[in-house]
Amino acid sequence: MMRKYALWFVLSPLILLSACESKESSPTGETAADAPPVVVVVNYPLEFIVDSLAGSEVKVLNPVPPGADPETWIPDDEVAETIQRAELIITNGADFADWVKKLSLPRSKVLRTSLSLKDALVTVPDFEVHSHGTGGAHSHAGTVAFFWLDPNLMYRQAEAIAQRLTKLNPADKQQIESRLLKFKESLAPLNQQLDQMKADYSGRHWFSRRPVYQYLARRCGWEMFHLHWKLGAEPTEGEWEQMQTLKKEHQISGVLWERSPGKDLREKLDAQGLNSFVLNPLTTKPAKGDYLTVMQEQLSQLAQFLKSNQPVSTEEKNPK
Amino acid sequence: MNGILRLTLRYLAYNKLKTVTLILCVTLAVLLPVLLHFAVSWFEQDLHSRAIATPLVAGVKGSRFDLALQSMYFSRADLEPTNMQAVETIQESGYAMPIPLAVRFTAQDAPVVGTSLDYFEFRKLKLAQGTSLKRLGDCVLGASIAERLQLKPGDSLMSDPLNVFDLSGNYPLKMRVVGVLERAHSPDDEAVFVDLKTEWIISGIGHGHQTINAETSKDLVLGQKDQQTVANAAVPQFNEVTDENLASFHFHGDTGTFPVSSIIVVPNDAKSEVLLLGMYDSKDADVQMIRPVVIVDELLQVVFRVKQLFDVNTFLVSFSVGLLLVLVFTLSLRLRRRERQTMFQLGCSRSVIWKLQLTEVLLILVSSLVLVLCITAVVRVYAEQLLRIWIID
């Protein structure tokens, strides 16, 4: 009996000590826990990919609050700490998500999906128009970040993510691989829709407010021209003139919008012979459905839109 | 107390000046070789342990010693910086994890080390107070620098301007102290850690400035064209990153071209290390990759050659000091002949008289050795700093 007490007497401080030690945190804030690994993503398409591949083995965290723009949202210190503690941080690359550039992140935990599509990236010479000092306005080249609008590129993003998830949890390798195959199959309807659109409406020229639809356009054989109009602001006379010149030069007949341009602007554009179509790139989670269902629906509507707004020149190019 | 010991102590206490002089003589004669021996062994140990903990270092081609010392000790060497593309190339090779380091600026004379969070994990640095780096403008202090500047989380620290007369140069940045590291007994204790992007802001590659409103800020606007406002150079740049202005901070140019002083490369395994070294072992490569431990060994070989000279010198000095001490004690014995005769007449045996003399010598030697040990222990506490000041800087 005495020996038992003596054993407890020796062990209890050791147990207490080890309990205290486990609470210590490194500068990266890591703590040992049995909880599932946390994977942080920067936008909804990446969240959708990780959800499709990882199942319930990992906790997917999209820290962008509902209603916030994932491109410009910046987390506070508390959320920043949560992000740093994650086991994996999946970013889009091409400067999508401001917070990736403004937060301190451990490089070893960051997976930039754009690196897996280096050969397919679209760079726009006048991505951003900027002015500083006496030099006047100048443009900066930039890479378009909306890769997922081409399902083939979305699948390549998924492949890179699957590879990293396997490293994170090698025991689930087979499951992840089979989910990746399923994911590829689930993208097939989108691919079919886009192939059909390419066959029917190739050679179209579009306007967009900023570089967003380049990958979708490349897939469908279209060309995009961007207007650099400020979000929510009425275009100036100069901008209208610039737009009209471009329209005449390239026979542009439509504008793709990320969100509705507003009734007045839409009417003004209609009067100029420019039909507007809203194609939500789904950077945030849709209220109903998921990426696949909503994108399929949008592409069906786009096909319908193209059918009803068929320019004469296109018919001549593709006689039926 | 033993009578012999008491008599010796009384004698030494009575002849204070003589005793102190003898103790100091012996102490100084022993201290120099002891300190030299320990200094070399500490230097070797310090350099080796840091080098072993730093598997590979990459940087632009130039002095290998400067590259190794800059990456391990944040010493200020005039090395050409490499760029972020070099970091990406190593990462994309899949052989190793690169940890970029940018060591070009100082804050209150302490090196500002721009790096990624991986550095803390790599060096196993723990936080004593506060949190790790969170966003642009944050800094984490090493234990010594925090102690010297009396800073804690919540305080601010200003970076030093490179040249106070260069008005077009980089602006000092007021950094937010978010954490203090536990003492690591390494150069990390003396450093101010910031995110690599914060270092680029200090260097002027990135900045934040107010949004120009053409109607309200007419003195700042040169012209207005469509929706583009062209501002003049008087637009004040933010010298502090706050929650309010964080969004306005941005970088110009291609990130791949942004400067990095050196890169700590942590290979996945031995094979990856060899492959990486092979990758950069080419005349055409702009970047060199070195094993710090090899550089340190080369450096230590030079130190050991110098030490051999010191050892010979120490032997000769010790020998001459020994002879001097023998002479001093012999003369002392001669001077105290009458004292010994008195003691003999008082009834002391010859052996007791000899014991008294020997105890005196022993006490002086022991006191000297104790003094040497105390001085060595004190020097040991500051050895790291002293070594870095004398040798690394």
- Total count of helical runs of at least 4 residues of chain A: 11
The largest pleated sheet of chain A is described as: 4 strands, parallel
Secondary structure: number of strands of chain A: 10
Taking the sheet with the most strands of chain B, its summary is: 10 strands, mixed
Q: For the residues shown, what is the average pLDDT of chain B?
A: 87
What is the element string of chain A, with H for helices and E for strands?
HEHEHEHEEEHHEHEHEHEHH
What is the strand content of chain A? Answer: 5-15%
Q: Which term fits the overall shape of chain A?
A: globular
Q: Uncertain segments of chain B of ≥5 residues (pLDDT<50)?
A: none
Brief overview:
The complex is a heterodimer of chains A (about 325) and B (about 400). Chain A is an alpha/beta fold and about 325 residues long.
Can you tell me about this structure?
The complex is a heterodimer of chains A (320) and B (393). Chain A has 320 residues and is α/β, with parallel strands linked by helices. Helices cover 46% and strands 14% of the residues of chain A. Chain A contains 11 helices and 10 strands. Chain A has helices at residues 2-22, 44-54, 77-85, 98-102, 151-168, 173-201, 214-220, 237-250, 263-271, 291-308, 312-317, and strands at residues 38-41, 59-61, 88-91, 110-112, 123-131, 137-143, 205-208, 223-226, 254-257, 275-278. In chain A, a hairpin with a 5-residue loop joins strand 5 and strand 6. Chain A starts with a helix and ends with a helix. Chain B has 393 residues and is of the alpha+beta class. Helix content of chain B is 50%, strand content 19%. In chain B, the strands form 4 sheets. In chain B, strands 1, 3, 4, 5, 6, 7, 8, 9, 15 and 16 form a 10-stranded mixed β-sheet that branches. In chain B, strands 2-14 form a two-stranded antiparallel ribbon. Chain B has a two-stranded antiparallel ribbon with strand order 10-13. In chain B, a hairpin with a 2-residue loop joins strand 3 (96-107) and strand 4 (110-115). The longest helix of chain B is centred in the last third of the chain and has 44 residues, at 292-335. The mean pLDDT of chain B is 87. Chains A and B meet through helix 3, helix 4 and helix 8 of A and strand 3, helix 5, strand 11, strand 12 and strand 13 of B.
